[in-house]
Amino acid sequence: MSHEAWTACCERLRASLPAQQFNTWIRALSAEPEEGGEGVRLRVLAPNRFILQWVRERYWPKIAEHLAELGIAQAELQLGAATKGGTPPRPSRAASAEVPSSTDATETPAAAAQESPPAASPAEESSTEPKPRPGRSAPKRRPLPLAEDVAPSSTLEALYERTRLNPAATFDTLVTGRANDLARAAAMQVAHNPGASYNPLFVYGGVGLGKTHLIHAIGNAIFRTDPRVVIRYVHAEDYYADVVRAYQQKSFDAFKRYYRSLDVLLIDDIQFFQNKARTQEEFFHAFNALTEAHKQIVITCDTYPKDIQGLEDRLISRFDWGLTVQIEPPELEMRVAIVQKKAQLLGVQVGDDVAFLIAKNLRSNVRELEGALNKVVAFANFHSQPITLELAKEALKDILHAYNRQLSVEHIQKTVADYYKTKVADMHSKKRTRAVARPRQVAMWLAKELTPLSLPAIGEAFGGRDHTTVLHAYRTINELRLTDPQLNHDVHVLLQVLRG
Ligand SMILES: Nc1ncnc2c1ncn2[C@@H]1O[C@H](COP(=O)(O)OP(=O)(O)OP(=O)(O)O)[C@@H](O)[C@H]1O
Fold first, then answer.
1. What is the DSSP letter of 273?
2. Ligand 1 atom at minimum distance from 302 CA
3. Residue 366 near ligand 1, beta carbon < 6 Å
4. Domains and CATH numbers, the chain
5. Does 209 contact ligand 1 (Cβ within 6 A)?
6. Under 8 Å between Cβ of 280 and 223
7. 369 lines ligand 1 (CB under 6 A)
8. Would you tell me which of 43, 146, 254, 383 could form a disulfide with 132, CB atoms 3.0–4.6 Å apart?
9. Closest ligand 1 atom, residue 213 Cα
10. Residue 239, Cα to own-chain centre: how many angstroms?
11. What are the distances in angstroms from CA 286 to CA 188, 202, 318?
């Protein structure tokens, strides 16, 4: 009776949980009647403490409720293996991990490019303080340990918090297509075998194409397999801020100890190390120490290693040691799939026609796709209407209008040059005086907002500039719009003029 109840309970859980969660956490459990029990008492067994703790925190109330409805009044969750009925299926150590989303760890936001010297800027103030843990003895683990137990005093939440990972960015929530399948496969390999496969794994690609998502997915997968692995996600700007702080507070020992104590270092947007000599030096030594100890390093960047400007050769050559993979802009089908996946994650129904509308008009980056979907969902909520094609067109009319008018970059450049009384030729020139550079940045910003062109294509139209220059201009103007009323007014007027 109790075995049947357990089977029925599992069926209910299978129906109510995402497959990944069910396969990872519930299939790992087994059940047996308690000795001397009359078929109404059940011991549910978890094969290790990690699973025990996770199931207890997340699923046990629901499991107990189902069992009660199925006539099992007393059920207990314990550590142990089933003594009969075969070995329960073990959770897969494969990398398609799912980390429950109830932790409050947040993704470190990518801030705008910063070329200023390392003074105490707000970006540094808000950066994450390194957290050296002097009491922690150097790990002697090769290979990384299995998930057999977790120190009872450290809750999973606390361990997870230290990683700075975003629980929503997993392999499960990452849509795969031609644009990222190699990068994803390499990332899964690394997650499966940290420190032993590709070290470093270097992922590069344009803005908003999922590089950050991918390295969080690696971290989340490793954490799920073994929460004792010391993982840290850090944005390169925060690493830089940590270096500055260590310098100011003369705390380099603590800084070094902390970064070298990691088992997995996930460092995002390494192009921010450009021309920051001291940061590069520190990173060089941390890199060497970690790789020598077979600790895993994963790096993301917006360009191929050899194309990063202002980075020391010895660092660039090290980036080549492991595997370098690119993420490309997604093709239409993949963009449609991404919109649908994001809608599913938001818990909303979006028809193929709406997904297609968004995917067709927003081509260059996934973040924009997401932004458009959010706009449609917010619009529907606000008007209490279902998401139809008509509603989506209305919600996105600004974007579609810009797209349909096929505004050319040339037209934008001419309009901006007229407005600022400069020459169109200055849009292409290498001149960097403020009077020329600012209108050029405004024009780049407008080109990005009002045309479906990619950053490299916009850069090309502005005298063959690199896409990072366009990105920098875009971020600069976004920031200035918040702090400089005159510039904000200028942009507003130009938007009106160009949108007609
Ligand atoms: N293949 C994908 N499947 C699902 N979501 C994706 C995919 N690619 C990107 N995204 C989503 O798009 C958004 C932007 O991605 P992400 O921040 O990882 O880009 P990035 O390449 O790191 O950008 P940046 O260069 O600005 O740092 C995120 O919300 C991410 O979840």
1. G
2. 25
3. yes
4. 2-79 (3.30.300.180), 159-327 (3.40.50.300), 332-404 (1.10.8.60), 409-499 (1.10.1750.10)
5. yes
6. no
7. no
8. 254
9. 18
10. 17
11. 24, 16, 12
